[in-house]
Specification:
Radius of gyration: 32 Å
Number of strands: 26
Distance between the termini: 54 Å
Strand order of the largest sheet: 11-10-9-8-12-15
Largest sheet: 6 strands, antiparallel
Structural class: alpha+beta
Helix content: 40-55%
Shape: globular
Strand content: 5-15%
Number of helices: 38
Length: 1089
């Protein structure tokens, strides 16, 4: 079978799918050139996104204003109008997507049905408005300037020159009629929920209506094509929507190859090949499969998954009234993708989720500006294949069977779809469609697997995305090549996938470092010299020669040229020998002989272009705006989205790379000294992903000595002067006897109280000292009335892991646990001291010889001193001056010595460590396994954790403790594996309710849900402790109408709330719990030991 698959690859004519130039041109490509995206790209959780019915009157007014501005020659005014229109356009798109998602979540919800219908009916008007604006801009006196590269680009308006457009009222009305019929499709689709497992009954009762609706859509679409001058709709759709660069004849040839080469294999395929995907899989298992795959892939894929999980940008559970399909939507105005899926609760969901997550990654990396349908499906199908390599489960055989089915079944659908648009007269009817589908089904071997001539009514794309299904065929071929590459060399396919997601970023990183090597009259000479020397020592700058003493000469008083820049780029990439030994053809006539190898290499490898088709412009100098733009692109920011290239200094000022010295008047006075300073300071600047440029280049954190050099060159006073106390501060601070090293309170009690409604980031901006942090905790009553009280323990990979509420989760829940308040205070005081981190210990009881807990608190480094503070001493409405653990020591070993003095026979230290990572909450700790305690961390955190003390002898000898190396290589975990309630204000009851709502038992009998699993009748569950809870299920539905008895109430008190949740208190000894529900009674054993 494998050889047959590889033979087909040679037949497919779509290798260009792997190239970014293939496919439909998305308006987002052009939007990105002329507008800024949401400031800061703040993450917005899906649950916080709001919907408003689009105001079409206001939309029309915005369009009219923009068109009116286009009649003048004031480019600034024109762009203001364009920005406003794009904003209105984007919000319409966003609201439309939200309405779609909500409606699909419950097809019986009439409110969302009405909102979705409203948006659908107005979508054509909105798109027509975009065309109208472009036609107005094409006629504008300012068109020549608007078509400059920094705006729309040369020739953008060529296709809009004709004032008479197909987008007239008649055409718009046709599109609206098509939209009305598509809305009708969703209404009819809702009928499926009434039939559940009765497919035959569904077809008998509903197929005729669905097929007749498709016939109506075909007729309307044929009218649309004819109105636009096409003889058939498929060709119109190819040209109008897809811009595919292969012909209908080539499509048909591929379909013929499938019929000839693959249908025979399809007929022989053993149904057992799909067996693995038919096994039961809960929503959690499906999500964990994707999390494991994303963690293994890392890079942009992991970043996208982190966003998906953090903002809960998915609805992947099963719902009886949900739309029975899956899709990904891009929420333009929030710049966040969203995944919708109605789960089958089988392992096949894992591949479906991986598919939609591929779309998610594509939109995440491109800000919704995907290159086209075929390319988009390459990313989705490619993610399915890559998940096989990184998902930790063997679904390969099933996926290969699915791939064969994809070729044949989607090929059949594509063939059927192209032919159905040729039906006319009486043949264009439900019966005519049945007859055509039966003919195609037989041609593609469906008789070998069983089919119904009416089953095409289940193919959503025929109704909502015409001519789309062929993309599944071509993308599958390209994705299989990706998989083959990954199989031949681990990481090679993933690298290609990532490159296509982030190609532009990688090129711009190279460009920045090329300029960083060619080092400028605004920077002070001594500082610029030190910056150049710093870069030289890092291997990032060679200089222009050496002096008599053999020291490098940097020629800082001269402006860098483009030719020098390219030369330095090639050297940086280690390709000088390749460049000099190669034979290059370049179209430029103005390149000096010495520069030709470098320019040739860079041009051939897509690293540079000319200033025109025949001129490279090698002697031209680089402006400040250009250089800063390269710098920002290297950091992952995008011009036209995150900043405007011609005023790039606004963002570099914000990032601390520059400090107001660059503006329009100084733009042209940019020397090598300036480039040296900018490049050196950029090493420590945070990129869009949160990593510094230094980390991007070298893969590790910047050394402290280099960070201090960068701070000094920047002229920063790293910390505020906190040596004087503000008047009116809380006098309780004096009782704590805080060392002066921590600074003085900068706010009065009254000022702190005005911060009680601040967001987490607002608190971070305002509070900069430990004393003020303490004041906030006291004045806010933090921990007095918490929504969540304790640490968070959860299962992953067979182990129990211990974490705490995140900084955000702690603030929202007022969680008083030591880890939660440590996460909160670390985040708020981040970068206010030279270093911030966590002290963590675990203890055991010598009397019982068993582990009994641990503790987390904070430390700060100020110069060469370390100061600790335990915020548990000031929360929950009380000040405990004797429990602050406020120690001043010279080094980390001093912290260890202080901690060891805290121990007692009841609390004896077996592990003490320091978590120094300044960018995250405290590390997850492996806490338990197989009923035993343990203590370890994921070894990938080794660089940021210092193990101060470990009583390995006790850990190995204790019967109730499972010894692990502290840095465990075998067990891995990341934040994407944490429960969602770690990151929000959920209470324990909220978390349990979420768990119970999402839980689907494997059995139809009366069972309990305990700790994420089902407990069958007659089984015990536990260990049960005070405050634990469980839920009752029968017939796979959660029950609320049941009764219960406890055999010995003295051993355990059980209560039931209105939601049917059982809570256990006063737990003392094992006893029997009897549940009586609709299906009878069942006994369960409450296990307490």
């Amino acid at each position: 079978m494998k050889m047959k698959f590889l033979r087909l690859i040679a037949l497919v004519l779509t290798a260009a799918v792997l190239l970014s130039g293939c496919g439909m041109v998305d308006f987002g490509e052009y939007f990105g050139a002329v507008r800024s995206l949401v400031d800061g790209n703040a993450i917005v959780p899906y649950e916080s996104m709001t919907y408003e019915r689009p105001d079409m009157t206001r939309f029309r007014q915005t369009l009219d204003t923009a068109c009116e501005a286009a009649k003048g020659d004031d480019v600034s005014a024109i762009l203001d109008g364009v920005y406003d229109f794009y904003d209105a356009y984007d919000w319409f798109s966003t609201y439309y997507a939200l309405a779609d998602i909500h409606y699909c979540a419950d097809l019986t919800d009439t409110y969302w049905e009405d909102e979705y219908n409203y948006c659908t009916q107005n979508a054509a008007t909105v798109d027509a408005g975009l065309q109208e604006l472009y036609r107005a801009l094409a006629q504008s006196p300012a068109r020549e300037e608007l078509e400059q590269e920094e705006y729309f680009g040369e020739g953008f308006f060529d296709s809009y020159e004709d004032e008479e457009s197909v987008w007239d009222e008649t055409f718009t009305a046709m599109l609206e009629e098509e939209a009305r019929l598509q809305t009708r499709y969703y209404e009819l689709s809702a009928q499926a929920a009434d039939y559940q497992d009765d497919t035959q009954g569904y077809y008998d009762d509903c197929a005729d209506g669905m097929a007749s609706l498709l016939a109506e859509l075909i007729a309307v679409r044929q009218e649309i094509a004819e109105y636009c001058g096409y003889s058939d709709y498929p060709q119109f759709a190819e040209d109008f929507y897809f811009y595919r660069d292969y012909t209908a004849a080539e499509e048909e040839q591929l379909l013929e190859d499938i019929r000839r080469e693959l249908v025979p294999l399809y007929r022989e395929l053993d149904a057992g090949a799909w067996e693995a995907t038919g096994e039961y899989a809960s929503e959690r298992e499906t999500l964990n499969y994707l999390a494991t795959a994303a963690e293994g892939m890392g890079g942009t894929v992991k970043e996208a998954h982190d966003l998906m999980k953090t903002a809960k940008l998915y609805d992947t559970g099963y719902g009886e009234n949900k739309y029975n399909s899956s899709f990904e939507q891009y929420l333009t105005s929030y710049q966040e993708p969203f995944i919708f899926m109605n789960a089958t609760l089988t392992a096949y969901d894992k591949l479906v989720l991986a598919h939609e997550f591929g779309h998610f990654c594509n939109d995440y990396a491109s800000y919704g500006s995907a290159a086209g349908v075929d390319v988009s499906e390459f990313f989705s199908t490619g993610m399915e294949y890559l998940s096989l390599c990184y998902g930790g489960e063997d679904l390969t055989r099933a996926k290969m069977a699915d791939s064969l089915g994809n070729y044949v079944e989607q090929g059949a659908y594509a063939s059927f779809e192209r032919q159905m648009y040729s039906l006319t007269g009486d043949a264009l009817s439900a019966e005519g469609l049945y007859a055509l589908y039966e003919q195609v089904a037989l041609d593609f071997g469906f008789d070998s697997v069983g089919y119904d001539r009416r089953e095409f009514v289940d193919v959503t794309h025929f109704y909502t995305n015409p001519m789309y299904v062929f993309s599944y065929v071509v993308s599958n071929d390209a994705a299989m090549q990706l998989y083959q590459l990954e199989q031949e060399q681990r990481g090679a396919g993933l690298e290609l996938y990532e490159q296509n997601l982030t190609t532009e970023e990688s090129y711009f990183l190279a460009f920045l470092m090329l300029f960083a090597l060619c080092m400028p009259a605004l920077a002070a000479e001594s500082e610029a010299q030190e910056a150049a020397e710093t870069l030289y020592e890092l291997g990032l700058f060679k200089g222009t020669g050496t002096d008599a003493a053999g020291k490098p000469v940097f020629d800082l008083g001269r402006a860098p040229t483009r030719a020098e820049a390219v030369t330095m780029l090639v050297r940086l990439l280690g390709k000088e020998e390749d460049a000099r030994s190669g034979s290059w053809e370049i179209p430029f006539t103005d390149v000096a002989n010495w520069a030709k190898p470098y320019v040739g290499y860079a041009y051939a490898n897509g690293l540079t272009t000319g200033v025109s088709e025949t001129r490279f412009g090698g002697s031209q100098t680089v402006t400040a705006a250009q250089f800063l733009t390269f710098t920002l692109r290297a950091l992952g920011y995008e011009s036209g989205k995150d900043f405007s290239w011609d005023t790039a200094w606004t963002l570099t000022d914000t990032l601390g790379i520059t400090n107001g010295q660059y503006h329009a008047k100084t733009n042209g006075s940019f020397l090598r000294a300036d480039a040296a300073m900018v490049s050196c300071l950029a090493l420590g600047a945070n990129g869009k992903t949160g990593k510094t440029l230094y980390e991007m280049i070298f893969g590790v954190k910047m050394p402290q000595t280099l960070a201090e050099t960068v701070d000094k060159l920047a002229g920063r006073t790293p910390k505020r002067d906190t040596s004087r106390a503000a008047a009116g501060y809380g006098k309780y601070l004096d009782t704590l006897r805080l060392p002066d090293l921590l600074g003085k309170p900068q706010y009065s009690q009254a000022e702190i109280r005005r911060m009680l409604d601040y967001s987490l980031d607002e608190l971070r901006d305002a509070i900069c000292t430990v004393p003020d942090m303490i004041q906030y905790i006291v004045e806010s009553g933090y921990g007095v009335d918490p929504k969540w009280e304790n640490d968070i323990h959860f299962e992953h990979g067979g182990y129990t892991w211990s974490v705490n509420k995140s900084a955000q989760g702690a603030l929202l829940s007022s969680c008083p646990s030591c880890g939660a308040i440590s996460n909160l205070t670390r985040y708020i005081l981040q970068d206010d001291y030279d270093e911030e981190g966590y002290v963590i210990w675990d203890t055991y009881d010598q009397t019982t010889n068993s582990a009994n807990g641990g503790h987390v608190f904070n430390y700060y480094r100020i110069g060469n001193k370390f100061v600790t503070f335990d915020y548990r001493s000031v929360e929950e409405g009380s000040i405990r001056a004797g429990s602050t653990r406020c120690w001043v020591v010279d080094d980390l070993s001093g912290i260890k010595d202080k901690v060891l003095r805290e121990q007692s026979p009841e609390y004896t230290m077996h592990t003490i460590f320091i978590d120094r990572d300044p960018q995250r909450d405290h590390v997850a700790i492996g806490w338990g396994h197989n009923g035993k305690s343990c203590t370890f961390v994921d070894a990938r955190n080794r660089d940021w954790i210092v193990l101060l003390y470990q009583d390995e002898a006790w850990q190995r000898s204790c019967p109730s403790f499972e010894y692990h190396p502290f840095f465990e290589e075998a067990e891995q975990i990341s934040e994407t594996d944490y429960p969602s309630y770690v990151f929000d204000g959920s209470s324990l009851q909220d978390a349990e309710r979420l768990q119970y709502d999402a839980f689907v038992p494997q059995s139809y009998e009366l069972v309990l849900c305990w700790d994420g699993g089902d407990v069958p009748p007659g089984w015990g569950f536990g260990v049960v402790r005070d405050g634990n809870a469980a839920a009752v299920y029968w017939n796979k539905q959660r029950l609320t109408n049941f009764t219960f008895t406890v055999q010995d109430p003295a051993n355990c008190t059980v209560t039931k709330d209105a939601n049917g949740i059982l809570t256990f208190t006063n737990v003392k000894a094992d006893t029997v719990l009897t549940i009586t529900g609709p299906g009878g009674s069942a006994e369960f054993v409450i296990v307490t030991k």
